[in-house]
Specification:
single chain; alpha/beta; TIM Barrel; 3 domains; 8-stranded mixed beta sheet; 8-stranded parallel beta barrel; about 15% strand; globular; binds phosphoenolpyruvate; binds magnesium ion
Length: about 550
């Protein structure tokens, strides 16, 4: 047996034979030295192919709409728009005429140029968009050369293995014959990955070990761990078949809870929102029927790149998330860099105690221009949905006031520049003991609290969350943590504002009853934990039993 790893796109198990995808290669003659085309004829061929490709996108739109919903279907209206994009299409026409070049050569060269400009932005989100340009380019080439794009699957069900899969290829696949797929390239935020998630297809991307020799061999794709087992033993097959059946039973049961209220048997309600770290998680928020986003960890937009994201780049991302989730509320936590998240370009000095150091609002308030870029992007995006923001690692009202002053300044500046802005609610993260003790003063000056239980435990119990040797001392139900949550809720309610729990403890089902009894207003958890929590809440009866356990 061989085990290979990749990045899982969907938690689920697929079992079946592997089918390595072979694409008929389109060979395009290098025309750099020998331009030899009839430009009038090539222009005509190109225009006909472009119109045909636009028609194909419309068909794919309808198929995606029926199988995966309108958000993912919109990928194909974006592709159709790319095929109408003046600059992109003119660059192809110019190459045909100036070469003169064949339509195929001009499409290939111009498509590659456009895709690589975006891919070079060194940003996972934009890299995923460059895959869309590659897809559109490939569609044009398929039409021009008469290549049939529908030949990736065989006659029997299989797990497909490919270098990469374009969104248009994925949506064309016959779901009855598609058990799952594994690609060597791709990213978890690509449209192909999003499609797989919304069509509930187990898939792995970035599986380096994928190779030609796997063709026809039996495999288990375990989306829970991101592992692919090739030639598994009969015993493993038996175990994973049982797990898959259990997964399916459980998913069907949880799906029944979509659209149902988070209400106990005696009528007590609580909100359940989702934690996300980028646009790629929005589909999971929708699929799991979360009420909104209670924590968007925005600092993930700043990682794995050479420079901080620009105002326009951030604006585009926040706008997309807000639009897709409107009218649901999206709470963006302003960037929480430092400690374990230290991108090189921030030039953060080495620290002896990074968790107690230069982190979160401490960075933002001492680098106001850096912070203002994010605040401006958020204010601009606020017009496209219901936006709230909240500031991480506050220790008291002074920092909250400084953050709010900077937000007000950004609003003033944008308005003076004639740039439209929208309303935002402002919240405070309660994740330091100091913030708990100052909760009344904080509550007077904000619209809501979010308790970050991960950090609140770290700082309350002096337990470095990065230090694995401390594990024996970690008690997620430590009485000091529970008392701090209780004090926070009491202070918030004295001032008429709600409290959300957004750390990992929110998804701990052994704590659900305690949160309800303590008066917590909402829980924000990983999208996959939303429905299990709903199930738990709907089985509770608070009229029986006693009060909180602190
Ligand atoms: C927390 O501290 O509980 C929290 C939600 O934020 P993070 O885990 O990102 O620090
Ligand atoms: Mg935190």
């Amino acid at each position: 047996m061989q085990a290979a790893n990749g990045k899982s796109v969907l938690e689920g198990i697929a079992i079946g034979p592997l089918r390595v995808v072979h694409r008929a290669k389109i060979v395009i003659r290098d025309e750099t030295q020998s331009p030899a085309a009839d430009p009038a004829r090539e222009l005509k061929r190109f225009e006909a192919a472009r119109l045909r490709a636009i028609e194909q996108q419309k068909t794919l739109y309808d198929k995606a709409l029926a199988e995966a919903g309108d958000e993912i279907a919109s990928v194909f209206s974006i592709h159709a728009m790319m095929l109408e994009d003046q600059e992109f299409m003119d660059s192809i026409r110019e190459l045909i005429v100036s070469g003169p070049h064949s339509a195929e050569y001009a499409v290939r060269v111009s498509g590659d140029r456009h895709a690589s400009v975006i891919a070079d932005l060194d940003d996972a989100y934009m890299a995923a968009r460059s895959a869309d340009i590659e897809d559109v380019t490939q569609t044009l080439l398929d039409v021009l050369t008469g290549r049939d794009p529908d030949t990736l699957q065989g006659e029997t069900p299989a797990i497909l293995v490919a270098e990469d899969l374009a969104p248009s290829e994925t949506v064309r696949l016959d779901k009855k014959l598609l058990l799952g797929f594994v690609t060597r390239r791709g990213s978890a935020s690509s449209h192909t990955a999003i499609l797989a998630r919304s069509m509930s297809i187990p898939a792995l991307v970035q599986c380096d070990a994928a190779c030609e020799e796997w063709n026809g061999r039996m495999a288990i794709l375990d989306g829970h761990t991101g592992c692919l087992y090739v030639d598994p033993s009969p015993k493993m097959l038996e175990i994973f078949r049982a797990r898959r059946a259990e997964d399916e039973r459980r998913q069907a049961m949880l799906a029944e809870l979509r659209g149902k209220p988070n209400q106990t048997l005696d009528g007590v309600q609580i909100g359940i929102e989702a934690n996300i770290s980028g646009v790629e998680d929005v589909a999971a928020v929708e699929a799991n029927d979360a009420e909104g986003v209670g924590l968007f960890r925005s600092e993930f937009l700043y990682l794995n790149r050479n420079a901080a994201p620009s105002e326009d780049e951030q604006f585009a991302i926040y706008k997309q998330v807000l639009r897709r989730l409107a009218p649901r509320r999206v709470v963006v936590r302003t960037c929480d860099l430092g400690a374990d998240k230290t991108p090189e370009y921030m030039q953060l000095a080495e620290e002896t105690n990074p968790a107690l150091g230069y982190r979160a609002v401490r960075i933002c308030l001492t680098r106001p221009d850096f912070f203002k870029t994010q605040l401006r992007a958020l204010l601009r995006a606020a017009r496209y949905g219901r936006l709230a923001l909240r500031f991480p690692m506050l220790t008291g009202p002074k920092e909250l006031a400084a953050c709010k002053a900077l937000l007000a300044k950004c609003r003033e500046e944008l308005t003076a520049e004639g740039v439209p802005v929208g309303p935002v609610e402002v919240g405070a993260m309660i994740e330091t003991p100091a913030a708990v003790l100052c909760a009344d003063a904080l509550a007077e000056n904000c619209d809501f609290f979010s308790v970050g239980t991960n950090d609140l435990l770290q700082y309350t119990c002096a337990l470095d969350r990065q230090n694995q040797h401390l594990e024996p001392f970690v008690d997620m139900h430590h009485p000091a943590l529970l008392r701090s949550i209780q004090m926070t809720v009491e202070a918030a309610h004295r001032h008429g504002i709600p409290v959300c729990i957004c750390g990992e403890l929110g998804a701990d089902l052994t704590m659900t009853e305690w949160f309800l009894r303590t008066g917590v207003d909402s829980l924000s958890v990983n999208p996959g934990a939303v429905l299990p929590l709903r199930e738990m809440i709907r089985g509770l009866d608070l009229s029986a039993g006693s009060g909180p356990k602190t």
